[in-house]
Every structure is written in structure tokens, then in C-alpha cells.
Design goal:
Structural class: alpha+beta
Radius of gyration: 20 Å
CATH architecture of the largest domain: 2-Layer Sandwich
Number of strands: 17
Helix content: 25-40%
């Protein structure tokens, strides 16, 4: 942070960015402010896990047959309550919801669409490992004033107008982009504000760290197995072997790669031939961020942001991180190595 700028809160930073665009109405900043408020509420619940009854399972399953954690529901309901009445959104969709989340009829319908994963990495909640919220924003394509539609949600990632994540770890961070770089804010609980801590983040073009669940090696395709063999083989000239760093929480693994370089991999396998991560709630927003930071995201053949979604809960393989590392993975997958 430049000393000339002093202390910058998230709201002040957004205001100063808006001043550079005379056509800005403040509506988008209002939406991000609502997101930040919800993040503070969820962070409070996460930080009290173990002290209040928010750990463990609810006994229910989500639409994918996965057990639902109590904090999943708290986060899901918190974001809806913080965002459905501000007049900024026309529709929402979430990993935790079967269909679209409509804006109540008695509230104004806005011009933006929000897709979000309320609590990514929730399997790590009970063991105090970093987890996060991921969000993606589009401008509606349906007529203004009406309810948002499925078509509003099923837009390719390159049409995102904003994306980001909130990391709940040793500190709470709000990282986002509106297409003018990636900026990170750290929550200071003593004053209740997100303060600018990482301005205009850039991911290194290369990195010698990789992040993947190697327990699934026997389920992978030949190309991914060859890549794994390559990065774990000793070769001083190419700085191999790479270091394996895997938390098992997408937001945390991605955040580390964004800061230090490297690559996160979640390939398809015999059990999940289409991949496991969700295109709309996880891959698209993180791909938007990493490209803004100078990195890349691919499904092995196509850039993530170029994929045309066909359904709201579509899954995809994901290779994301430093540009040169993603290109290397593509070469192995495509049989060029």
C-alpha cells in the first residue's frame, strides 16, 4: 500500500475507483458493500466455531448427495439475507440451492446476477482449517425490472463484471476484481473494517509448487499421471521436484498459489469423469481473478472463461495458477509431452 494513500478501507477504495469512471452509479459498489457485510457476519460465526453450536452436520444432504454442515447453512442464509433486499440483484444461484434464488416480489429487481459458493471447503470446518466464500457477478441480459432468469445465470465466465472470494483463516481476507486488477483487504476486527493489504496482486508466471490430491493418482488419465511423474522427478535444471502443497480447501490452495505462484489441479477421474468442481460457483470466479493477476485457468483443453455453461450446477476439471505451469499441464493432457 502506498504511504501517500494512507489507510484505505474497502468502501473508500471502491469510492476512489468509481471516481475514475464518471458513468459509475454506485450500484455495483453497493453490492460489494453488502457482500462485505455478510462476510463479517460469517467470519464471526467461523471464529466462534467450537464455542457455539455451529460445528458438525445438520443430518441433511445437499442436491449433490453431500452431507451439509451447520456452518454451510449459516453462511448460505447470511448471504441471502444480506443481498436480497438491496435493489442491486435480479436473481441469485448457489451451490447449496437446487434452483434459482429469486429476489422477493416486494423488493426492487436490480441489474446484477450473483452466483456463489457460501462456504467452500466446509469439510475442513471441524478441524479449524481455512475455508472460504467464492462469488461471481454478471450483468443481467433479461429485461430490466423483471425477475432474473436462468439465461442470466448461464453466461460464460468472460462476461463476469466482478468476482472474488473471502478467506476465513488466521485472518479474514476479502479479495476481489472488477476487471481492473486484483485487490486484497484484511479484516481488522478492532475497528470492524476491511483494510487494503494487497493492491494489484500479480501471480508469478512460473512456480515450483503444485497442489492436488495425490491419493487419487490411480484414477487419473495417462496425461495427468505423466505430469505427476514429471513434477516429482529430480532435475536441478528445471527446479524439480516441485513442492507439493495441498490443504484440501480450494480458496486456501488458490490463495497460496496467487501469492507465491504454482498451480492447483483438480482433474477428472474414473469416479468423476466430468470433474468435481462447479464451473459457475468455483472455477469461473477464480479463473476471472487469476487472469486479472496475469495467470491462467483451463480445463485441459479450453480456457475456463471461454466455456459456455449448459446447466447451473455444471462441473468441470480445473487447472489454475501460474501461466507457464497451466500451459505445461495442457501439454501433458493433450499428448504433446
Amino acid at each position: 500500500m502506498s504511504p501517500k494513500k494512507g489507510i484505505l478501507t474497502l468502501s473508500r477504495f471502491m469510492f476512489e475507483q468509481e471516481r475514475e469512471f464518471p458513468e459509475a452509479t454506485g450500484e455495483f459498489s453497493g453490492l460489494l458493500s453488502d457482500m462485505a457485510l455478510a462476510a463479517k457476519v460469517v467470519a464471526r460465526s467461523v471464529n466462534k466455531a467450537g464455542l457455539i453450536e455451529v460445528l458438525g452436520f445438520t443430518g441433511d444432504e445437499n442436491i449433490f448427495g453431500e452431507e451439509v454442515k451447520k456452518l454451510d447453512i449459516i453462511a448460505f442464509e447470511t448471504f441471502i439475507r444480506a443481498l436480497d433486499h438491496g435493489g442491486h440483484l435480479c436473481v441469485m444461484a448457489s451451490e447449496e440451492s437446487d434452483g434459482l434464488i429469486k429476489i422477493p416480489s416486494y423488493h426492487e429487481k436490480g441489474k446484477y446476477v450473483l452466483l456463489f459458493d457460501p462456504l467452500d471447503g466446509s469439510s475442513n470446518i471441524d478441524v479449524n482449517v481455512s475455508i472460504g466464500t467464492i462469488f461471481s457477478m454478471f450483468r443481467r441480459i433479461s429485461p430490466d425490472g423483471n425477475d432474473g432468469t436462468l439465461e442470466d445465470c448461464l453466461q460464460p465466465g468472460y462476461k463476469q463484471v466482478g468476482a472474488g472470494y473471502i478467506l476465513y483463516g488466521s485472518s479474514t481476507m476479502f479479495v476481489y476484481s472488477t476487471g481492473t486488477g486484483v485487490h486484497g483487504f484484511t479484516f481488522d476486527p478492532s475497528i470492524g473494517e476491511f483494510l487494503l493489504s494487497n493492491e494489484d496482486l500479480k501471480i508469478p508466471e512460473r512456480g515450483n509448487m503444485f497442489s492436488m490430491n495425490t491419493g487419487y493418482v490411480n484414477r487419473w488419465s495417462q496425461g495427468i499421471r505423466k505430469y505427476y511423474e514429471y513434477v516429482t522427478t529430480l532435475d536441478a535444471k528445471t527446479k524439480r521436484p516441485y513442492s507439493l502443497r495441498y490443504i484440501g480447501s480450494l480458496v486456501a490452495d488458490f490463495h497460496r498459489s496467487l501469492l507465491y505462484g504454482g498451480v492447483f489441479l483438480y482433474p477428472p477421474d474414473a469416479k468423476s469423469p466430468k470433474g468435481k468442481l462447479r464451473l459457475m460457483y468455483e472455477a469461473n470466479p477464480l479463473a476471472f481473478l487469476v487472469e486479472q493477476a496475469g495467470g491462467a485457468a483451463s480445463d485441459g483443453h479450453t480456457p475456463i472463461l471461454q466455456k459456455q455453461p449448459e446447466e447451473i450446477h455444471e462441473r468441470t476439471p480445473l487447472y489454475i495458477g501460474s501461466k507457464d505451469e497451466v500451459k505445461l499441464i495442457e501439454e501433458f493432457i493433450q499428448g504433446k509431452r
